[in-house]
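> call design_seq(struct)
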């Protein structure tokens, strides 16, 4: 294992991921859980999370790109794998050879895939993506019959059918209802019970277990993060956050009243203050917009003062503390907690953006 000397690290609790998986299994009954591990498992580490998911009984993984699927294979992850986004024609023979399933995202894509397939290889596994309202990728509802003809003519292996919701994380709304009913009528028309039908992301899998069909695609909440504050406020079960971000004080000093801290001198000490330096900055994913955010030291919230630098930032303490004192930026410490959702709110964004922006410089440690 690589030795790291800087005390800044992300500690990933794989047991929390297991607990969340278990909670989804109970919530969504017989539906398969498709563990969404794209974007390095939302910053948690694709290989480690995939391994844990498979160990817990998951049989399907989903990623966004063909390269992510190959990365899993290269790391000896043996599972059914679906590429949910666009797959270029050049990948088609690779998908045939490896058995990676790909999303058929348009009639044009089906035509290109038909030209790209190698007839001497096993047939291409496809999951037909229907655009029921997201307007991102997918065939239109009126194109389903034509898509089925192309699939049959070119002997693709028609394994799955799916769609993606635009507003499943909000209170009941028209768009969501329209997407549900469009999809229901397509499923009914195709009427193929061996097909793997999956429509739900985390929000729908939490709020609408009745829509589980035979599989759900769970991403963000696998990691213990709520998809939105609406879902968070209406959670039928508890999620276990998997990611902790921690560091240690590396420097501490008394700064005189009137002096300023960091670039731009944006923070002025009102009195003599204890200022500690932390070895984490925006190049680690501790974005500059987090100036003023609190961190935990000895279970107490302490503010980040002054501009966050690329590699370091400063906090204010009520008293002198030793170099080496533990600091929790995200996660629990001595009964207190700072959640990823709190960072997202401070930054005016969604929780999804936080862990995926923790950079490679922050080692992921597993427990
Ligand atoms: C990312 C993604 C998911 C997972 O969504 P979460 O909200 O993270 O659960 C599911 N389906 C598709 C098509 C996606 O791109």
């Amino acid at each position: 294992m690589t030795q790291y000397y800087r005390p800044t690290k992300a500690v990933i609790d794989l047991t929390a991921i297991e607990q969340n998986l278990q909670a989804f299994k109970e919530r969504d009954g017989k539906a398969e859980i498709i563990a969404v591990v794209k974007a390095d498992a939302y910053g948690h580490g694709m290989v480690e999370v995939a391994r844990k998911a498979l160990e817990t009984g998951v049989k399907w993984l989903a990623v966004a790109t063909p390269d992510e699927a190959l990365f899993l294979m290269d790391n000896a992850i043996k599972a059914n794998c679906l590429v949910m986004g666009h797959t270029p024609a050049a990948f088609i023979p690779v998908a045939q050879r490896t058995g990676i399933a790909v999303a058929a995202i348009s009639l044009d894509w089906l035509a290109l895939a038909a030209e790209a397939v190698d007839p001497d290889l096993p047939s291409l596994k496809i999951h037909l993506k229907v655009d029921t309202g997201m307007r991102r990728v997918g065939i239109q509802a009126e194109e389903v019959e034509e898509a089925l003809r192309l699939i049959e003519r070119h002997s693709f292996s028609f394994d799955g059918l799916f769609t993606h919701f635009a507003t499943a994380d909000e209170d009941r709304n028209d768009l969501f209802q329209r997407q549900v009913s469009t999809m229901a009528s397509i499923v009914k028309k195709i009427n193929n019970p061996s097909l793997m039908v999956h429509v739900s992301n985390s929000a729908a899998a939490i709020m609408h277990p009745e829509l589980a069909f035979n599989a759900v695609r769970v991403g963000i909440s696998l990691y213990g993060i709520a998809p939105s504050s609406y879902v968070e406020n209406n959670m039928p079960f508890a999620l276990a956050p998997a990611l902790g971000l921690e560091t240690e004080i590396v420097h501490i000093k008394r700064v005189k009243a009137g002096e300023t801290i960091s670039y731009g001198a944006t923070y002025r000490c009102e009195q003599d203050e204890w200022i500690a330096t932390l070895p984490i900055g925006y190049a680690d994913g501790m974005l500059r917009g987090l100036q003023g955010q609190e961190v935990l030291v000895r279970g107490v919230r302490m503010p980040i003062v002054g501009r966050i630098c690329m590699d370091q930032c400063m906090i204010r303490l009520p008293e002198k503390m030793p170099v080496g004192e533990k600091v929790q930026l995200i996660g629990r410490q001595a009964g207190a907690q700072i959640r990823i959702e709190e960072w997202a709110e401070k930054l005016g964004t969604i929780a999804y953006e936080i862990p995926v922006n923790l950079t490679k410089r922050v080692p992921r440690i597993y427990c």
